[in-house]
Structures are given as structure tokens and as C-alpha cells.
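Retro notes, item 3 of 5
We never archived the inputs for the uracil complex last cycle. Fixing that now. Sequence and ligand:
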Amino acid sequence: MDKYAKLKRLHEKQHTKCSCGLKTIAIQPVFGNGNPEAKVVFIGEAPGKKEDETGVPFMGAAGKFLEEMLETIGMKREQIYITNIVKYRPPNNRDPEPNEKDACREWLRKELSFIKPKLIVFLGRHSMNDFFPDLKISNAHGKLIIKKFAHIPTTHFLPLYHPAAALYNGKMRKILMEDFKKIPK
Ligand code: URA
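Structure as it came back at the time:
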């Protein structure tokens, strides 16, 4: 079985096991997507409408913007892996609740242990605070954090503003694009 098939099996197993309350409301789970050999994993918050409909993360406007930014650093979506802390769409795109994050946590840990990326990029405060609860995104964005966690193989983390937040905010957009350039380094 190749790595893609193994990863798909991991997602199917976690979906079956997952006790997240959003599972019964969402159209479908949104599995992490991309290259299972990726050196960089991006972690967003939770699926939105487009993602719920397609079953693929970052398919809407924020995803398009993310792809544009990847291009500016010479990377393609096929090289990276993108996932969310919560795998089911919260109703009306509300913020995921702590119990929903908790219910999806084992799933995220399993996929990170499988991929073993060199760098984890947090897209927005939700994913950053899931690992670093005390940090503020306004201060932490663009600054590399090195830390060893017991349950995941990655030690390097880069928090960024969420592309959806920066999309229509010129100042934040500029900062995000600058922060993005730190990824290859
Ligand atoms: N925003 C997220 O955080 N994740 C997605 O998959 C889409 C939008």
C-alpha cells in the first residue's frame, strides 16, 4: 500500500472513531489533503461551506489566496499538506468550540505523526492556540517557534494570520505576505 492509500485509511479510521458533535450536522468530513511526504504542513481552523460541499480543505476564497501566496515562494499546493484542527464544518461558520477541538485532536496528532513535517504553519489563532494557548497571533505571527511536544514529531512552528482574515484587510494582507516568505528558510 502506498503512502496516499495509508493516509486515506488513517482518515477513514479516524472519521469512524471521531466523537465530534459536528459530524452529524456536516455534509461530510474534510480530510487533510496534499502530499503525504510534505515537509510543510499548514493547519487551518475548520471547514467552511465550500469545503463541506467538496470534502477538501481550503477550496474557497481563502484557499485561492493561499495558493497565490505559495506561488510567490515558488511552492505548489501539491508539495504541501493542508488540514484543519476540526474536520467538520461548524454551522454558519461559527468558531469551533473547545469540545469539538478536543474530539478532533487525536485525528490531527495521528496525521502529523504520519507525515512528520519539518515545519508546521498555523493559519490563524485557532490552530496556533491549540498548540500554544498563551500566545497572541498579533504578536506571534511570523516568528518561528522551536518546541518539542511529546506526541508529535515536528519541532518547528510558524504562526501566520489566517488568509480569510487577511483577504480583505490590506494591512494584514501585506504582513501575511511578508511572513509567508519566511517559510522556505
Ligand atoms: N478556513 C479554514 O480554516 N479551513 C478551511 O478548510 C477553509 C477555510
